[in-house]
Amino acid sequence: MRGLSVFISDIRNCQNKEQERLRVDKELANIRTHFKAERKLTPYEKKKYVWKLLYIFMLGYDVDFGHMEAVSLISAPKYAEKQVGYMVTSCLLNESNDFLRLVINSVRNDIIGRNETFQCLALTMVGNIGGKEFSESVAPDVQKLLLSSSARPLVKKKAALCLLRLFRKNPDIISTETWPQRMASLLEERNIGILLAAMSLLVALVAANPEAYLCCVPKCVKVLERLSKCVDIPQDYTYYAIPSPWLQVKTMRVLQYFPSIEDPSIRKSLLEVLARILQGTEVVKNVNKNNAAHAILFEALALAMHMDAEREVMQHCVALLGKFLGVREPNIRYLALENMARMLMVADVQDDIRSFQSQIVHSLKDPDISIRRRALDLLYGLCDIDNAKFIVEQLLEYLTIADFVIREELTLKTAILAEKFAVELPWYVDVILCLIERAGDFVSEDVWYRVVQIVTNNDDLQPYAASSVLKLIRKPAVHETMVKVGSYILGEFSHLLPAQPGSTPADVFAVLHDKFHTVSIPTRALMLSAYVKLAVRSPPDDALHAKLMAVFTRYESSVDAEVQQRAVEYASLCRRGGAAMADIVADMPKFPERESSLLRKAPDNEGDSAEVSAVKLRAQQGNALALVPVTAAKHPSAPLAPAAADSAGGVGPVRRPQPAASADVTPSSPPSTAQPPPSQPPASLVDEPAAAPPPSAGNELALVPAGDTAAASAVGDLLGELLSLDPSASASAPTAAPGAPAAAAGAVGQGLGSPGGAEAGAMALTLFDQTAAPAAVVQPLGSVAEWFRALMGKDSGVLYEDPHLQIGVKSEWKPPHGRLVLFLGNKETAPLTALHASTPPTAGLRVILSPLPQVIPPRAQIQLPVEAAAVLVPRDAPRLDLAYTLPSGVRVPLRLHLPVALSKALLPASLSSTDFFARWKTLSAPPHKQQVVLRGVKPLPLPALAQLLASLHVNPLPNLDPNPNNIVACCTLHTETTPPTLLLARLETDPTDRSQLRLTCASSDPTASAALKDFISDNISELPPAWLQPPPVATQQQQGGAAMLALPWSGAPAVSSPPGPTAPAPAAPQHAPHMMLPGAAPPPAAGMAPMPYGGMPMQPPGMGMGGPMGMGGPGMAPPMQMGGGMGMPGAMGPPGMGMGGQMPMHMGGMPGAPQGGMPMGGSMPGAMGMPGYRPGPGGPGSGSLL
Q1: Does the global pTM surpass 0.85?
Q2: CA 745 to chain centre
């Protein structure tokens, strides 16, 4: 074509890009003119101009016309024109282009025709751009062509690859009932090209359903035997004397998707093939041959691991990999390290891999950073209790010369290894302090939080830790993280230092204060707390007292609110002195046992069987190598390294593994609390306490860094990671049928305390209603009723989810007030618009919605804060009317209910046996005492019934009822219009028939008695499974429990929850400030929940309310006014876990009250951790929390 040749020559002769653009524009104008001309183009001209369009497209210019002309050429009868049509269509159009619908019939005619050339053209185009429409139209014809005995090998190869493309777009086109035998027959082909194409198709089929294609395993083994023996392999498929390396790799990859082969003859044949590959691979000078041979070798290693081959074979594999560690080729060294790390998951070869430990350590100094990373991963997985000290020492030595891009990962893994395999706790402390000293900038907050927890929980370790920290902090240049650790440990345990020069409290203060001006504001706040503890721990020393008062007085006017707040408080405490100060600044209690946040971050590269290795390998290779999505079976990971908790509740050194196969626990997590509850966050900087902290004799002051926002860095996948939703509430919930929501609503209505247990169905809550929308526009992805019931017993979870929108909720309650935050996540790639939310009035409740943004950006979330208050006894859940518009313009209205019920207005209470039955006898008749007999309930043991009551905030009191088959419980009801009302409950069971119960509720308020009776009876009748979790009985992590409130806001004495079921009755309140260490649970006071400065309730660690999981955004605390206490502003919780949001409040007394200290009001942004005091316009007595 002369015209095309001239055009290409002109383009090549252009001197610059501008000339080329001008020439292309000129040609495009010419082509457009000819296409628009009335006279009909000749086939030659049309072909020439379409070729030019393709060349212009290949140059990178947009071609937005001529598509119809290209598509029309597909129907041409001549090969030259049809070839142009197919080629240009494949390049210019994609599978969603409407023009392709015009040629489906033409393509199908070419496929079923007898012209093999046309068949190849059609199959090639469909294999490149075929979509679902093509799969529905031509898939049967392609299958017939593939299985035809008369088709040429070239056509069958293209048919297999074309079918592969169609299967990826529509898996339903291949039936698992008929195709396994067809694939087995295809694997008997002698033509290597057909086998290669069929094996590519088999990879996709097996990845989707391996069980259906088990009949192909013997055929695959025979193919491998043929290739390994080089039998009947054409020269065209031999690559550097290696028979079809691509087919060998794909065949071994297919075998890894099947379960381990058990048939002796097939297994023997396959092991012979693997042995032949392992023994026949050598490193040669030819790079291409090296690449092909080692591709086969490493795939054979993976297959041997999957098969759980005999020990001799695995030892040979390890020896071969160890040999590759010393070769010059970096790619081979990298693959050797990577495969060694995989082999760690295979039993009985760890010792063989450890024989190459020195070479692996040497790889840490390799010039290639990718090799250094793989060496670090391998050492991490290779570490055990025997070689932990050696490996950790090597990692610490390497830390000083490691690249900055790898230091953070290196420090984290070193800290994890030191904790997992610490035989001696002093060694663990030395390692962490060395980490901080050598790489302080790369040591995360979790690392020093954890060492502080371990030191606090081990009394024998405290003197050593204090001495070590004091020695390091004396150095002239000290990292700020070391100052933080030193401030906490020396503040708590400096009095345990040996009596020697330089260890007096005055000396410790001098050493610490020397670093005061070199650290950031949050660390200064922490150091001030250490100073006040030094003042209490030290013997009377006027000189030290004067120095401390000088520091506190100087910073009483600091511009930073947190530093100012602490300085004011500590100066006031030092002036008062005496027993009150000693009680406030008491010793830090031991931290509750919990799973280490560091161990939770450990990479998941451990296992205990070859099956785990195979599954993980298939999962890793699935997305990249399988041609359809792969869902690997979930296998339980192997337990972490053996460890044991100290008998006193602290963290002790790990014990050496015993021969007995028992499940060990992590250093700080007992078996009962090894896993956090499903509703707790999976990876917060501060762990959730798994049990109530041990009781203490008084209020304690702990050290906490202020203003830390480290927790605000991890944003999860919409709501799943933000709320750590219970998988049973979303993934496994049954999909609601179109008629199901209304039916589910009635069931949930019975669980909300509807009047008269028998009349519970009259409540008929419509949890999900789209009656105003077109039929079946949007259906939820699970049971909205189940999600609602689950939220009645916990404070976070999914409220609603459909294919476009997910709504999660997180709440906090200080009865009678509460605050919810709804997290609305957009699952679409386009924005959801025209959002509207409203709530009608609800009897007994006041619900206020904050303004809702009108748009949710794509793949993002917004927050809707909701204020709620119990004005009277709540009976019904408030309704939420929500609507949004899809990108297609369809309006979706939703009618949901907020998880607000009677339990949210209850606080667990505790009474002695004498007090309980004395009150019980005074309330002897209706209407104060209400009774109902429940029949036909699910039989449950007494502990499960007690758990259910505890989940409803009704505190079971064990061993109080003379009848051991009965349960008595009590709680307090808080509303805005009435003082706190004590509610008593008694559940009588028949040991011979657990299916019938008698429930009696009593209180001074008949309405409250009836409401509690209905609420408990409804929930016992339904027994929602999500509520039968280990109960937070009277613990301070119960957000609705007594730990959230020290004094009822009406001024009446609080009824607080005891640390345990048998704890004594509450003592008189002790108002005292608390500042908690990150990761610590708030220490309980004697008889009451701890109250931070001025009455603001302490948040449990890890559950701060500054947005989702303490990551900023609106806070969760309701508006409140609280009186009493010392009237001093205080620190508010661990860093990154502050309450945040708008919180108007008055603390320490009502505004203008003559007694009550310093009233404050203002707002708290999220993720601040510890709000500070800022002088307000009214003088020092007014201000705001930041």
Answers
A1: no
A2: 30
